[in-house]
Design brief:
Length: 509
């Protein structure tokens, strides 16, 4: 933890927010706090919405910001209290205690030339260690990260001078030579193995040049960017969707999510550009865009339909499963699964994107982390138990079942665009024939809950044994009783079985 915490010392608001997150300082959402005795604490800082919060311990963090300015933050610790035993440094200094309001009157000092002194509270004096080890770790980590970046930069500069930029990009694509690939595959990633260290993330973000806007929505915009000749996707969140940016940053930096069918994370940054604060999430770029866009342009042979479906199911199954061990991950429910949040890669496999509403669960501690995002999912894809507000919000399985309902709708979108005996339908979104273009909550509730309608499955699918199997699977995703629906793992295995006798599709370039 000591080495990881030194990564948070970059100045600026994003560094402070992520530092407080690493120390477990939240506004005390009781649904996120593990079982056990809780205390009430004073809450002051960017993560607080109320003057008090509840957690398993109270904390004070003193941060040296830009311009040598000192800022104190108070709050609650609601994750593993082991993080409270990290080392203080010359850039930040933290203090923890375990009785109600014990962080109210604590005042910390932070001096650049000596080890900060802890106040005594609750009759306990926390372990005091000098900043030397922490600073050494910071220097080593920073040097390793910057050395690796500079080594790759120098290599690419020399190639640029010899070959020119177009030749360099061609050479990189032919040989699989990728600066981002090297960085993400090296030992210089975060402890989770998901992304780069935070100091390097900010360096990468500041070197990205935005090239073209490839998507807009209520969330903000998605741009294609260039970083040293490589295309990356930059999702720029609107200011009202800050919690989604924060949640995705939190999940990608604390959970091992490297998987072929989950959108690859590169970096996250909160920065001031053009006199306004911008929230960036930088990921791998996929030129085919979303499955929604792909289906507008492309009709599908059955083999390609199965390839898209099984790869999306693999991504969902990876999210839903809890993996134990040091390289493990909690179970994750997506909560906003739809064709716009599934991307199509160049190899015509899908990957799942947008974890801004995700919920996490660990079986061992029965710890349910629902985040703190006021945004709700997409109404068109909401399961009946969400629309009639009967979902059990304290039960993790409930969230997985809503993902399965939505996955059935995505399957329906795929099979409508699949050619059977020369017949295919135009692309339409689910429930296109019974609700308006932008349906309200009440519109969807009437159709799904009152009328108990599901999308009409085309009769022509019965003529194809594989597609009739997909049709049956969709029906089993749409059972009104959530617990009767298929699991993501069962869907994955069934589609794999259906595709066993079909040849692989040709890749479109």
């Amino acid at each position: 933890m000591k080495g990881q915490m030194t990564m948070y010392l970059d100045s600026g608001r994003s560094g402070i927010l992520i530092l407080l997150m690493a120390l477990g300082m939240t506004q005390g959402d009781s649904s996120k706090t593990p079982p056990g005795p809780r205390v009430t604490c004073t809450c002051q800082g960017p993560t607080c919405q109320l003057p008090i919060c509840q957690g398993i311990w109270c904390t004070v963090v003193l941060v040296r910001e830009e311009g040598n300015h000192l800022q104190e933050y108070r709050g609650c610790g609601s994750i593993n209290p082991e993080v409270c035993r990290g080392q203080p440094t010359e850039v930040f200094h933290h203090y923890c205690c375990s009785s109600s309001f014990c962080n109210s009157n604590v005042s910390l000092k932070l001096e650049a030339t000596q080890t900060p002194e802890y106040p005594e509270a609750d009759g306990q004096l926390p372990l005091i260690l000098g900043p030397v080890l922490a600073l050494l770790a910071l220097v080593v980590l920073g040097t390793l990260g910057l050395w690796h970046v500079r080594r790759r930069q120098e290599k690419h500069r020399s190639l640029l001078s010899e070959l020119g930029e177009s030749s360099l990009i061609l050479k990189a694509s032919e040989q699989g030579d990728s600066m981002l690939g090297d960085l993400l595959d090296s030992d210089c990633t975060t402890g989770s193995g998901s992304g780069l260290p935070f100091l390097v993330q900010r360096t990468v973000a500041r070197q990205v040049a935005l090239m073209e806007c490839v998507g807009k929505g209520r969330y903000g915009e998605v741009w294609r960017g260039l970083w040293h000749g490589e295309s990356v996707a930059v999702k720029i969140f609107s200011s009202r969707d800050e919690q989604s940016w924060f949640r995705e940053t939190e999940i990608y930096n604390t959970v091992l999510l490297r998987h072929d069918n989950i959108l690859g994370f590169i970096a996250s940054d909160m920065t001031s550009r053009n006199s306004s604060t911008q929230l960036w999430l930088i990921t791998h770029y996929h030129e085919h865009g979303s499955l929604y866009d792909f289906l507008q342009r492309q009709t599908l042979e059955p083999q390609l339909a199965l390839r898209l479906a099984v790869s999306a199911a693999c991504g969902l199954a990876h999210l839903h499963v809890e993996i134990f061990g040091t390289q493990g991950k909690p179970a994750i429910a997506h909560r906003d699964l739809k064709s716009r949040n599934v991307l199509v890669k160049s190899n015509l496999q899908c990957c799942i994107a947008d974890l801004g509403l995700a919920v996490m669960h660990s079986q061992g501690s029965d710890y349910l982390d629902i985040g703190n995002n006021p945004r709700v999912g997409t109404k068109r894809y909401m399961a009946p138990e969400v629309l009639d507000e009967k979902i059990r919000t304290d039960c993790f399985e409930s969230y997985k079942w809503t993902d399965i309902w939505a996955f059935g709708l995505v399957l329906w979108e795929i099979v409508r665009r699949t050619i059977v005996n020369g017949i295919v339908e135009d692309y339409r979104p689910p429930f296109y024939d019974v609700v308006p273009n932008d349906p309200s909550f009440e519109d969807m509730k009437k159709v799904v809950c009152v009328d108990q309608q599901t999308p009409t499955i085309p009769n022509r699918l019965a003529a194809d044994p594989v597609l009739s199997g997909l049709a049956q699977m969709m029906r089993e995703c749409w059972y009104p009783n959530p617990s009767a629906r298929l699991t993501a793992l069962r869907i994955k295995k069934t589609i794999q079985k259906l595709s066993n006798n079909l040849e692989k599709p040709k890749v479109i370039h």
